[in-house]
Write a structure and sequence with these properties.
The complex is a heterodimer of chains A (745) and B (319). Chain A is mostly helical and 745 residues long. Chain A has 26 helices and five strands. Chain A is globular and about 100 Å long. The chains are: A mainly alpha (745), B mainly alpha (319).
C-alpha cells in the first residue's frame, strides 16, 4: 500500500514537527515543580474571586453620606458592578494564562491541602483505610485541592468564558447591578468544583455554584416568569444535590471515609455499589448539564438570567457538570467497569440531541433557542462519553481516547461558541429591546460587528467546516463510526441508530442556526425598535471578537487542542491521541488520512480566489439597486417603510415544515386553526401548542404526585380536634399492634 | 513525481469539473426533451446562459446586506472546494488526504446554509419559503447520508473517499446487499440535494412549486450565473461521487501515469453520462411530490441506509 505509506510519512512528519517544536517551546526544566505553583495560583484565583464578590457586596451597601440617597445608591450599585466585572475580567485573564502555561507544560498533577474544611473527620480511627495515601500524610478533613489535566482542560474553558462574560457584564445595562456581587462568586464556585481534590470540596463548589447562579437568575425577580424559572432551577439543583451527595458518599464509604479522590481512586467501587454510583452521578450531573430528560429547566432559566450569566451557565456551568460526570465515571469509579455503562449515555445523549435540535427550531425567544441548542450539544458530547465508556469497558483504549478526546474538544468548542451567542443575544436585547424573533430582523445593518461574530458562532452551531463545531462533531462522528468494533450485535445496531440521530441533530442544528441568523439578523425589521437597534457596547464587542478569534483558532487547529487534552486521555483511558492528532490534522486511526481543518481552509481560500478571479475576468462589475422583486409583489404603501410585515417569513413560518414533519411525533405539536366564517371581519388565527415529552412523561406525573401529597398533608394539618384525636389514637393502636406482633415473632 | 502527477490531476480535474458541469445540465435537458418528443435546446445552451447572465449587471434589492452579495461567490467556492475533493477520472489527487466524506458533506452544507441565509436576507416571502424547505429537506437527507458514510466506513475502515475508492477499485468486494441498499439511499439523498424531481422541479417557473429556485428568486445577473453554475457543479459532483464509489473500475492512479488518463477520462464521461441518462428518464417518468411527502421519501432512504449497516453487522459480524 504505497498510498497509505505516504500518508503515514506525512503524518510522521507532522508529528515529529509538533513533537520537536512544542516541547522545545514549553518543556521548562522544572515542569514537575510548575504544577504546585500553578495550583497555588489557582487557589489564590478562587480566593480573589470570592474576595471580589465580598468587596462588591460591601460597596453595594456602602452609601457615602452627603449625596441624595437615591443617586448615591445608584452610584454604589454601579461601582459594585464595576468592581465585580472588572475584577473578574482581570482574574480570569490571569487564570487563563496560568492554565494555558500549565497545559502546555505537560499538565503534571499537584495536590495541596488547606488548613480548613470539614470538622470531625480528623478524629483518629475514622480515616482508617486511606489514612496515609498521599505522601504519608494523615487525612485530617482539610479541603484538598488538586490539579490535573482534566481540571486544567475545563479550567481553560471556564477562564475564557469567564473573562468574556465579565467583559460583557461591564457594558450591561444597569439593571443587573443588584446581583453583581454574585458573578465572581459564581466563577469562584465553578473553579473550586474543578479544582476539588476531595468529595467535600467538590460538593461545596458544586452547591455554591448552584446557589450563586440561582441568585443571578433572580436578577429580574420582579418578573413572575423569572421567579418561576428560578424555582424550577433550584428544584433541579436540589435534585442534583440529592443524587450527587449520596453518590460521593458511596464512593467515600468504599474508601473508608477518606474523602480525598486519591483514596477513592485506590479503592474504586464494585458491583451494585458501582452501579448505584453510576446512576446517581448520571442523574446528579445530568440534571445540571441539561442531559435529557432532565433538561426542562434550561430554556426558561437561560432566558430568565441576564445574558452574560446565561453565557456562563450555558458555556461553562454545563461543562462543569460534564467534568463532574467524567471525573466520577472515568476517574473515581476506576478503570474496570462494564461495557453497558455506555448504553444509557448513548440513548440519553441521542434522545437529547434530537429533542434539543428540534426544539431549537421552534423557540421564539433567541435565548431559549440557544438553550435548546445547548441541550442538543450536551447530547452529542454525552454520546462521545458513552462511546468512550463502552470502548474502555471493552479494552479498546484507542477508540476510547478518540471518543473522549472528541467529547472534550466539542465541550470546549461548544463552551466558546455558546458563550459568544448568549453574549450576542444580550447585545441584541440591549440594542433592539427584545429577544423575540417576531420582533427582530435586519440587525446586520445596525449591528455589523455583532453580526459577523454571530456568524462565526452560528457556523460552529451548525457544524460547518472549518469551524470549531465541525471539528468537534467530526471527531465525535468518527468515534461513533468506530463504535461497532466494541462488538455485540445489539450495541452495534444501537450505535448505528445513534449515528443517524446525531446526523439528524446536526442538521436540525444547522436549520436552527440559519433560522436564528436569517430571522433575527437578516431580512427586514419586524418592529420599529429593531429598525433602530444600537450596536453592542465596546466591551461587549471586545468579548465577542475575542471569542470569535478563539473559535477560529480552535476550529483551524483542533489537533493542538486535542494535544492539550493528551495527559487526560492517557490517564483516564490509557491511550492518547498523539499518534493521530497533530497540529494540522486529526485522524481517526493512526497512519490514515483524517480531517485537516487548516488544509480545508486553505483549499477553500484557493477556491474563493479562483472564483473571484473568474468573476473579475468574465463578468460586468457593479450592480444596480432596485426595490425587491418579490415575485412581482406590489410596492408597499408609504406608511409601511419596511414593507408589509406579514409578507416576510418569520421564526414560526420558517420552522413550520419541521414542526409538521417531526413536531407531531416528538413534541405533540398541535395546530389549532381558527378560520372565521365567510363574511366575518376577524382575522384567521393559527395557534401551535407544543409540549416537551420530558415535561409530559416525567415532570407532570411528579408534579401531580407532589400536589396530591401536599393536599393530603394539608388535610391532616387542618383536621378538627375530634378527628385529630381519633387519628392519633388510631396511630397509637396501630403502633402498639405492630410492637405486639413483633414481640410474637 | 507522484506529487506532480497529483497536482496535474487536480488541476485537470477542477478544470474539467468547471467546464463540463453546465454541459451535463444541457445534456440532461436534451435527453428529457427527446423523451418528451421535442428537439430541445443544444447541449451548450447552459454555458451560453451562464455567459449571458455573467455579462448582465445584477439588480439587487435596496435592503440587501453584504451577505447577499457575498453568498453566491462563497457558496460556489465551497462547492468548488468539495468538487476538488471528489476524485473523478483519477485517484491520488493532491487533495486526496483531505477528501473525507464528512468534510465533503460539510462543505456542501456550508454552501446550502449560505444560500438559505441569502434567501432570507431580502425579507421576501419566496426567499423565506425556499430557505425553510431547503433546510428541512437537508435535515432528513443528512441522516441518510450519514448512514451511507457509516456503511462505507465500516466496510473500508476509513471515511476518506480516496482511500475508499482505492480499496473498491483494487479489491473485488463483489455484489453486496449492503452496498446495493447504500446505493439506493445515496441516490435518494443526491436527488434531494440537487433539487431534482420528485423532490423539487428544476424547470419550474411557478413560484409555489419551487424550493431551491424560490430561495434564489431575488438574484439576477452575475450572482444568478454563479448560483446556476453552483447547481450544475453540484450535480456533476454528486454523479462523480456515486460513480467513484459504486462504479470504481477504470480510474487512473498516480502510479499508472498520465497515459492511462486516455482511457480513464472517456470512461468517467461515460459513467456520468449513463447516470445522466438514467436521471433524465427517471425525471420524465415521475411527477413532483408534495412538500410534506419529501420527509417520507427521505425517511425511506434513512431506513435503507440503516438496513445497509445492519446487514453488514449480521453478515460479517464486525468486531
Amino acid at each position: 500500500m504505497p498510498r497509505a505509506g505516504r500518508f503515514r510519512q506525512r503524518r510522521a512528519d507532522c508529528i515529529s514537527w509538533w513533537c520537536e517544536t512544542v516541547p522545545a517551546l514549553c518543556a521548562v526544566p522544572g515542569a514537575i515543580a510548575l504544577s504546585p505553583v500553578i495550583l497555588t495560583g489557582f487557589a489564590l484565583v478562587v480566593a480573589a474571586l470570592l474576595g471580589l464578590g465580598a468587596a462588591s457586596a460591601v460597596v453595594h451597601h456602602h452609601i457615602p453620606a452627603g449625596a441624595t440617597r437615591r443617586r448615591a445608591a445608584a452610584a454604589a450599585a454601579l461601582a459594585s458592578r464595576r468592581i465585580a466585572a472588572l475584577g473578574s475580567l482581570g482574574v480570569c485573564g490571569l487564570g487563563f494564562l496560568l492554565v494555558l502555561t500549565y497545559l502546555l507544560a505537560g499538565a503534571g498533577t499537584a495536590t495541596i491541602t488547606l488548613p480548613l474544611g470539614l470538622p470531625g473527620l480528623g478524629v483518629p480511627g475514622l480515616g482508617v483505610a486511606g489514612g496515609n495515601l498521599l505522601d504519608g500524610t494523615r487525612y485530617d478533613g482539610g479541603i484538598t485541592l488538586a490539579l490535573d489535566g482534566l481540571s486544567g482542560f475545563f479550567l481553560l474553558l471556564l477562564m475564557a468564558a469567564g473573562a468574556a462574560a465579565s467583559a460583557a457584564a461591564l457594558d450591561g445595562p444597569g439593571d443587573t447591578d443588584a446581583t453583581a456581587p454574585f458573578l465572581p462568586v459564581f466563577l469562584a464556585a465553578m473553579a473550586l468544583t474543578l479544582l476539588a481534590g476531595d468529595a467535600f470540596a467538590l460538593v461545596l463548589g458544586f452547591e455554591l455554584m448552584s446557589l450563586a447562579s440561582f441568585a443571578l437568575i433572580l436578577t429580574h425577580h420582579d418578573d413572575a416568569t423569572v421567579r418561576a424559572a428560578a424555582l424550577l432551577y433550584i428544584g433541579m439543583a436540589a435534585l442534583g444535590a440529592a443524587c450527587l451527595i449520596p453518590a460521593l458518599a458511596l464512593l467515600a464509604d468504599g474508601a473508608g471515609w477518606d474523602l480525598r479522590f486519591a483514596a477513592i481512586r485506590a479503592l474504586p467501587p464494585e458491583g451494585w455499589r458501582a452501579t448505584l454510583v453510576f446512576v446517581l452521578a448520571l442523574v446528579g450531573a445530568g440534571s445540571k448539564a441539561g442531559l435529557a430528560p432532565l433538561h426542562v429547566w434550561l430554556p426558561p432559566a437561560h432566558a430568565a438570567a441576564p445574558a452574560h450569566v446565561s453565557a456562563l451557565m450555558s458555556g461553562a456551568m454545563t461543562k462543569v457538570a460534564l467534568y463532574l460526570l467524567v471525573r466520577v465515571l472515568f476517574d473515581l469509579c476506576g478503570p474496570a467497569q462494564p461495557v453497558w455503562w455506555g448504553v444509557p449515555l448513548l440513548v440519553l445523549g441521542a434522545g437529547g440531541a434530537v429533542l434539543g435540535g428540534l426544539r431549537a427550531n421552534l423557540e421564539n425567544d433567541i435565548k431559549a433557542l440557544l438553550a435548546c441548542s445547548t441541550v442538543e450539544n450536551i447530547g452529542l458530547i454525552v454520546i462521545g462519553l458513552g462511546v468512550a465508556l463502552a470502548a474502555r469497558g471493552a479494552d479498546l483504549s484507542t477508540l476510547a481516547a478518540l471518543a473522549l478526546g472528541g467529547a472534550l474538544l466539542h465541550a470546549l468548542a461548544h463552551g466558546l461558541f455558546k458563550s459568544l451567542l448568549f453574549i450576542a443575544a444580550g447585545a441584541v436585547q440591549h440594542g433592539a429591546g427584545t429577544r423575540l424573533l417576531v420582533r427582530l430582523g435586519g440587525l446586520i445593518h445596525r449591528m455589523p460587528v455583532t453580526t459577523v461574530c454571530v456568524l462565526v458562532g452560528a457556523a460552529s452551531l451548525a457544524g460547518l467546516p472549518p469551524s470549531a463545531g465541525f471539528a468537534g462533531e467530526w471527531t465525535l462522528f468518527q468515534a461513533v463510526l468506530g463504535g461497532p468494533r466494541i462488538g455485540n450485535l445489539g450495541l452495534q445496531i444501537l450505535i448505528c441508530v445513534v449515528a443517524a440521530l446525531m446526523a439528524l441533530a446536526a442538521a436540525l442544528a444547522a436549520a436552527a442556526a440559519v433560522r436564528l441568523v436569517g430571522v433575527a439578523f437578516l431580512g427586514r425589521p419586524r418592529s420599529p425598535r429593531a429598525a433602530a437597534a444600537d450596536e453592542a457596547g465596546p466591551r461587549t464587542r471586545d468579548a465577542l471578537t475575542g471569542l470569535a478569534v478563539a473559535l477560529a483558532v480552535v476550529g483551524l487547529f483542533p489537533g493542538a487542542v486535542l494535544s492539550l487534552a493528551e495527559p487526560v486521555l492517557r490517564r483516564l483511558v490509557s491511550a492518547g491521541l498523539d499518534d493521530r492528532a497533530g497540529l494540522l490534522e486529526v485522524a481517526a486511526q493512526a497512519g490514515m488520512p483524517g480531517y485537516s481543518a487548516a488544509g480545508i481552509a486553505l483549499l477553500g481560500a484557493l477556491a474563493a480566489g479562483l472564483v473571484l478571479w473568474l468573476v473579475r475576468t468574465l463578468t460586468t462589475p457593479g450592480h444596480r439597486d432596485a426595490p425587491a422583486w418579490d415575485g412581482g409583489f406590489g410596492a408597499p404603501p408609504p406608511w409601511l417603510p419596511f414593507g408589509d410585515p406579514l409578507t416576510q417569513y418569520g421564526g414560526a413560518s420558517f420552522a413550520q415544515p419541521l414542526r409538521r414533519a417531526l413536531g407531531g411525533a416528538l413534541l405533540q405539536a398541535d395546530e389549532i386553526v381558527d378560520m372565521p366564517a365567510p363574511g366575518e371581519t376577524r382575522p384567521a388565527r393559527i395557534t401551535v401548542e407544543l409540549s416537551d415529552p420530558a415535561a409530559w412523561w416525567l415532570f407532570r406525573p411528579v408534579a401531580e404526585l407532589r400536589a396530591r401529597l401536599s393536599a393530603f398533608a394539608d388535610a391532616i394539618q387542618f383536621l378538627t380536634i375530634r378527628r385529630t384525636l381519633s387519628l392519633m389514637f388510631t396511630v397509637l393502636v396501630l403502633f402498639l399492634a405492630v410492637v405486639a406482633l413483633m414481640e410474637q415473632l | 513525481m507522484t506529487s506532480l502527477i497529483g497536482l496535474a490531476t487536480l488541476l485537470l480535474h477542477v478544470a474539467l469539473m468547471l467546464a463540463l458541469a453546465p454541459l451535463l445540465v444541457g445534456f440532461i435537458r436534451t435527453i428529457k426533451a427527446r423523451v418528451l418528443g421535442r428537439v430541445g435546446p443544444p447541449v451548450v445552451q447552459p454555458w451560453r446562459d451562464l455567459l449571458r447572465l455573467a455579462r448582465k449587471q445584477p439588480v439587487v434589492a435596496e435592503n440587501a446586506s453584504w451577505l447577499f452579495h457575498a453568498a453566491p461567490a462563497a457558496g460556489f467556492a465551497a462547492t468548488l472546494a468539495a468538487a476538488a475533493l471528489v476524485p473523478g477520472f483519477a485517484l491520488g489527487m493532491t487533495t486526496a488526504p483531505l477528501a473525507d466524506l464528512l468534510v465533503i458533506a460539510g462543505l456542501l452544507a456550508l454552501a446550502r446554509c449560505l444560500l438559505a441565509l441569502a434567501g432570507l436576507d431580502i425579507g421576501t416571502a419566496f426567499g423565506g419559503i425556499g430557505a425553510s424547505r431547503e433546510m428541512t429537506f437537508a435535515a432528513f437527507a443528512e441522516p441518510a447520508m450519514m448512514l451511507v458514510i457509516f456503511t462505507l466506513g465500516l466496510l473500508m475502515g476509513t471515511t476518506n473517499l480516496d482511500a475508499i475508492a482505492l480499496v473498491l477499485r483494487e479489491v473485488t468486494v463483489g455484489l453486496r446487499v449492503s452496498l446495493g441498499l447504500a446505493l439506493v439511499a445515496i441516490v435518494a439523498v443526491a436527488i434531494a440535494e440537487n433539487s431534482r424531481l420528485p423532490v423539487d422541479n428544476p424547470a419550474s417557473h411557478l413560484e409555489l412549486t419551487m424550493v431551491h429556485e424560490a430561495m434564489v428568486l431575488e438574484y439576477s445577473g452575475r450572482h444568478l450565473a454563479l448560483i446556476e453554475a453552483t447547481a450544475a457543479l453540484k450535480l456533476l459532483l454528486w454523479m462523480t461521487l456515486i460513480a467513484t464509489i459504486f462504479a470504481p473500475f477504470g480510474t487512473a492512479t498516480p502510479e499508472s501515469g498520465p497515459l492511462v488518463w486516455l482511457f480513464a477520462l472517456p470512461l468517467w464521461a461515460v459513467k456520468v453520462g449513463a447516470l445522466a441518462v438514467v436521471l433524465a428518464l427517471f425525471e420524465s417518468a415521475i411527477a413532483k411530490m408534495r412538500v410534506f411527502r419529501v420527509p417520507e421519501f427521505l425517511g425511506i432512504a434513512v431506513l435503507l441506509g440503516l438496513l445497509a449497516a445492519v446487514f453488514l453487522f449480521v453478515s460479517q459480524g464486525i468486531a
